[in-house]
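request received
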Amino acid sequence: MSAAGERGVEAAVGLGAPRAAPKLLAPSPHHALFWLGAVLLGAALVVGLRLIGNEYGYFAGYFILQYIVLSSAWNILGGYAGYVNFGAAGFMAAGAYTAIALRKAFGLDLLPGIVAAGFVTGLLGLGTGYLTLRLRGVFFSIATLCLAVVLQTLIVNWDYVGGSRGAYIVRPREVPPFVSYGEYMFVVMLMLAILAVGISRTVELSRLGRGLQAIRDNERAAEAVGVPTLRLKLIATTLCGVLMGVAGAPLPYYSGYLNPEAAFSLAYAVNAIAMPLIGGAGSWLGPVIGAVLLGGLQQAATVTISSALNLWIVGWMLVIFVALFPRGIIGWFRRRA
Amino acid sequence: MDHLTRRQFGRLSLAAAIAGAGQVAGVFPALAQSANPIRIGFAMALSGGLAGNGRATLLAYQIWAQEVNARGGILGRPVQLVFYDDQTQPGLVPGIYTKLLDVDKVDIVTSPYATAMIAPAMPVVMQRNVTFLTIFGAGVNEAFKYDRHFNVNVVGDNMKETYATGYFEVAAMLPAPPRSIAIAAVDNEFAQKAAESARYHAKKRGIRIVYDRSYPPSTVDFTPIIRAMQSGRPDLVFIASYPPDSSGLVRAANELRFTPAIFGGGLVGPQLASFQSQFGPLLNNLVTWDVYSPEPTMDFPGVATFLQKYRELAPREQTDLLGNYIPPYAYAQMQTLEQTLTRIGKIDQAAMAADMHAQEFDTIVGKFRFSALGEWAEPRNLFVQFQGITDNELERYKRPGAKVILAPASLKSGSLRTPYGAAG
Amino acid sequence: MDPDLVLLLNGIVSGLLLGGLYAAAATGLAVSFGMLDIVNIAHPALMVMGAFSVVLIGTALGLDPLLVAVLQAPLFYLLGILIYGVYHHFFEKRGEEALQGLAFFFGVMFIIEVGLVMAFGPEQRFLDPPYAFITWRIGEIDLPLRMLAPALLALAALGALHLYLKRSFTGLAVAAVAQDAEALRLMAVNPVRIKRLAFGLSVALASIAGGALVVVQPVDPSSGQIFIGRVFAICIMGGMASLPGCLTAALLFGVVENVTATFYGPSWSPAVAFGWLLLVLAFRPQGLFGRMA
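response:
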């Protein structure tokens, strides 16, 4: 245990230095520029897809964007602070089912559903934050896995939201300012993705992010030098929870039907971890690259190779990438630069 | 071309995939358009939990397509299947159907296998007002109420009131009227609806429910369920389960020497060859829901020929060896499509829907009409009993007598043997 | 006897037998995860791979599945050595094992599962030995050999492993690797060699667990998934590196699951079992039987 800690400190010293240097030179991390750029890119995407005029673009786009949100959320806790969350599917499903429950109870639509989902999963995240008080490393991961199982059992036995039969959401065929429901879903998820990436970037570049990195590198040492570890971890787990929840809330609207098996699908948990790792965990851009690459590949493979083979390719990709590019694609470029 | 080889199948699917991919990349536009085929698009579970039945369904479609093309196609055009693997992941389905309709621009879409995969395709299909012919859904359209949805499945409109009717008709054949029933259902849509129907009928007939529980699909050991049932000493046992748990429950019932007058219900699993070859004599006297049995009462024209062809190909395609469950219905689904198109003489979504609402279809699984919601107007839930099984040989399931039909009365081909566990 | 008491007794006994299967699945993990700190999330997938190979070999040669499982174990030992080689080269040596290593095993799990689908199709496979249809009955208690035989094999494997770890020099070295690899190096024992051997052993144990699984139930390529949570839970509750702890936790897990299923309905049994683990983790992170590190 202690050996790993020392290694962690070395790594922190070794890696922290080059990364910290530009930060000192540029105290303002160009937040305004980032937001402007992100919004412009988003707008360009919407306009571009509308010009292509093909519904499929929206669906493929939604698929990838939801993973951008999910993996950015995972990265805040996993990449920055080093707490691996196995329960991404659980959080996502909790968000989805919050949206379903609200619709059933009050007839509320997607947008209030997203807000509520963020609130509920934020609380859930806060709860897991308290778990980190006692649990480190893989124990925390297993605890999040347990949490997902417990949540799934609760949903399965909760008849009000459909239980194991699943819930139907009959969505309107038209949403006025948008050309189609597909575009509407795409725009909603796009905004969530911009928000998620923006938050994850702001966290990385702020004191919070540096504190989380200190926790990742050596939690005890960080505590010793006065980093308020518990508070930072609670913020991180809550943020992570909120973002995973909002990624899940549109899911029932996207598919029109949701059952627990689909909502708690292993694919979400796997991708939430695999994408940041492939892109480069610990940097806000990593999960984005990973989600675009792996999500795009999965979507493309689904509609081209279309057999079990494409899942196989994803498995091999993951293994080869983590073996050859241990710091993800971002890390590989940084090293070459 | 009487026999399809695996390589030809491979080419067929490859061609379909290339045709799909080609239009995106613009690589092979000529290939897709040269013969001007009628393109039928669908997603199908070729991997993941539903892949067993998904692959069998696909094989049935391919047999149909090959036969139709050998006859010169429909409306003078060959048919081409454009399909993608949905990996049993509902999240992939909306994307696939948008791709099929907007990028591949297929002429007709049919459904993936089973409710959880069909439902996510519905909004996409409805938005484009396309006629949607589905396979083995259960009550999907109750929520959507889409007037161009048609489902090939024996369960019909009102699953709650009709599904278990046959089971209770069989129960009424017992020498002493049954007084109590135990119900167990796996946590999934179809099984829960089946159990609901059993509950409904038990209450209606004044049969006391002594055990009524659901269990998660991740259950490993089924002895606690069987034992808890056993302690209530029910006359009837109604189980609604899926293949992995069906086998666990049948095993546990045998190990605990559970011998209620009727044991069975809505088990999915005993219909499949792998199950039959594993359990052999343990299946004797099991009374369960089914859709097809090679009894003389179900010898519809064409079904024997189809099954023979299917069974020749099944081993190489690694699908269910007998094809007694979903394949005849999948083939019939495509026959339905063919009959509609031939009748209206063009590809027109509105006309197809109108024709399907109005006409009767004559297929290898018999004649049927669609109701207003697009389900079979006359439900035909079979309740069969395994009889006289002496070993694990599969040949007997190709002939009458092994799986006797007890209900509905119109197709009855044998008489009830009781109790369960006595003959084994 | 009081019927409720009979139910309870049978619930406990069937839970113990189920726990035997869990023990078979978790023992290998107690070595790789508990002692070597390698988060081998692909362990259940390796078990299913073992089960498939048991079915194929057993059917072809007409042999008993448990016998085949033991006979093929050396092959899986070699496979384990191979996997560890890759893992060590790319992750452990670079000190990247925590996160990247986890992703590596995630990928391996995927590759195995999908590889099995591609090679053998998604259908269930089975190989029932004749005794799988026999149930012993002692008073009011049922003992199906289908559950008893794998449980006994699991006990035997666990016992042998325990003896090996306690009595042989290499075995002691494996235990020492878990405590302090540096000290081992000072004793002129190469910790990498020891870890390779131990990881090989853990995969060999996965193959034996595969044999046990075949006797209990038919297997399909995704059968491993439902075991992932359970085996890790058992390892942690057992206090990681402790084999007796692992066995006790496995048996307890089985009993809790089955007693809950008997009396409160099977719907809640996963929530009870995992909720219990969640509580253990929150209040006693060293496991029920572990000592404070």
